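Sequence and structure are kept together here, with a separate record for every protein. A complete record is shown below as an example:
=====
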Amino acid sequence: MRRRLGLAAGLGLLVSGCIAHDVRIGREFAPATQPTAMDYADWSLVLNRALRIDDSKRPLAPTEVDYAAIGIQPEPLMRYLAKLEHVGPSTTPAIFERPADRIAYYINAYNATVIYGIAAQVKNGVVPMHVPRSPTSGYRYLVDGAWRTPDELRQLAMAESKGDWRVALAMCSGRRSDPRFAARPYIGAVLEYQLQQFAVNSLSDPAVVRVDAGIQYLYVHPAIFRDRVRLIDNYQKRTGARNAQLLSVLIDMARPNQYPLLNSAVGYPVFELPSDPAINAASSMKAPEPSLFSKLFGGL
């Protein structure tokens, strides 16, 4: 029988939406001893369940997330969030000596807190298209010894990575206009490989690159658009090219199967993709039992 949880933060959504609600994780989820390493096993389980990896249920589209499944069995997510309270670059610096370890920590923490912020607003197994409380600024979590919103965790990740646009792509705010969640946790030891692979794969994602042949525009994700000058400059220094365009940078990075889409945009002006605040949830279905979070937040 699935364990049902009663957590002591149930009035959060009754507070004005402009005030971040503090999420307090029960002591029963805290690590028994002070961790001496960063273990992402619980976070991996959350991603497996939310993205339905290797699952016999209806396959999800690449961008869909099953937030209702997280609310029904939230124990792995709660254990991971509890671990973030006690481990981090400030509280346990010996575990995060390399910048890559710190960047991976912040990316994973951001994505996990966003998933919580959306799963907490599931009602009877259905995720609202537009959640009443922002999952990136409407909640605060005790992370690395300080109360932080996901937006603040994003800022830490970007500062630690010196503004790496690939890091920005790796953090999903749960909106339909964001790149998908990565299927596996980010790990410091292989972070460079993971970021590059995710960035290249994302060139096939309409939330990252979209070609509008009708009006002949090339749209790119804001993370790429805002860093386009540096991307072009680095490309020109590396290749010796002159007067390069952003499309040349993308084609240089892309895989052969992505060439047709990108080549179809030759000569098109480049614009920033517009934001879509709708939640990237799987098709709404009634859950087999009420969401555990529905008790916590009064069914909102």
